[in-house]
Write a sequence for this structure.
C-alpha cells in the first residue's frame, strides 16, 4: 500500500510489492470487472439510458453485490430475480438479463485423469462398459470418457469449483474400484497435470 484516499474509498497498491499469485488474482479481478462494466454500458445504451443514469444504476448494483462482476454473474444466473429491489426500468432490466445471459458464463473446472483398466473375463467389454456408467451425474457437472485404446481411457470431470469436482472424481474412482474388484482385473488411474 502506498497511498490511501479516504474521500474516494480507494487504496493504491504497488504491483512490485505483491506476490506473483496476488498480482495474478488482482489483474484477473480488474479484467473481469472491466468486462462486466462494458457489458453493463452496452445494456444501458441498448435501453436508451443516459450516462448519468447508467452510473447511478451501476452504483446500485455494486452496492447490492459488492462489485459489478458479481452483480452481472448473479443477473446471468438468476435473471430478473437478481434485479428485485433495484427499481430499474423494465426495458433496461430486459437488456441486462439478455446481455448477461449471453456473455457471462460461470467458470468451470475440469479435472482429467488417465485410467488404465483391463478385465480378464470372457465378458470383459460389458464389465468395463457397466463400470464406466455413472448412474447419476450431479446437477451442474459433466462427465466425459475418451477411449485411447485398450486399456487406456481418459476421464474428464467438469464442474463449478475444484474442490467439488475433485470429490466427484474421488467418489467415482472409489465406486469404480469396488465394482472392478469383483472380477479378475487390473485397475489404476492418475491425474493428468497441465504442463507449467
Amino acid at each position: 500500500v502506498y497511498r490511501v484516499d479516504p474521500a474516494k474509498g480507494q487504496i493504491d497498491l504497488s504491483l512490485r510489492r505483491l506476490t506473483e499469485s496476488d498480482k495474478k488474482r488482482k489483474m484477473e479481478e480488474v479484467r473481469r470487472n472491466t468486462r462486466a462494466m462494458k457489458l453493463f454500458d452496452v445494456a444501458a445504451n441498448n435501453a436508451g439510458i443516459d450516462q448519468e443514469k447508467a452510473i447511478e444504476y451501476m452504483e446500485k448494483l455494486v452496492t447490492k453485490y459488492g462489485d459489478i462482476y458479481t452483480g452481472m454473474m448473479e443477473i446471468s444466473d438468476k435473471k430478473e430475480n437478481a434485479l428485485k429491489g433495484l427499481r430499474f426500468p423494465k426495458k433496461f432490466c430486459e437488456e441486462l438479463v439478455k446481455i448477461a445471459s449471453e456473455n457471462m458464463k460461470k467458470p468451470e473446472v475440469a479435472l482429467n485423469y488417465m485410467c488404465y483398466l483391463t478385465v480378464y473375463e470372457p465378458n470383459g467389454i460389458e464389465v468395463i462398459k457397466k463400470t464406466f456408467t455413472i448412474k447419476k451425474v450431479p446437477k451442474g457437472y459433466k462427465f466425459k470418457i475418451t477411449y485411447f485404446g485398450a486399456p487406456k481411457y481418459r476421464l474428464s470431470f467438469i464442474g463449478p469449483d475444484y474442490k467439488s469436482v475433485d470429490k466427484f472424481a474421488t467418489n467415482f474412482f472409489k465406486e469404480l474400484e469396488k465394482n472392478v474388484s469383483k472380477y479378475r482385473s487390473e485397475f489404476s488411474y492418475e491425474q493428468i497435470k497441465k504442463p507449467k
About this structure: The helical segments are 20-47, 51-65, 68-78, 90-103, 124-132, 162-180.
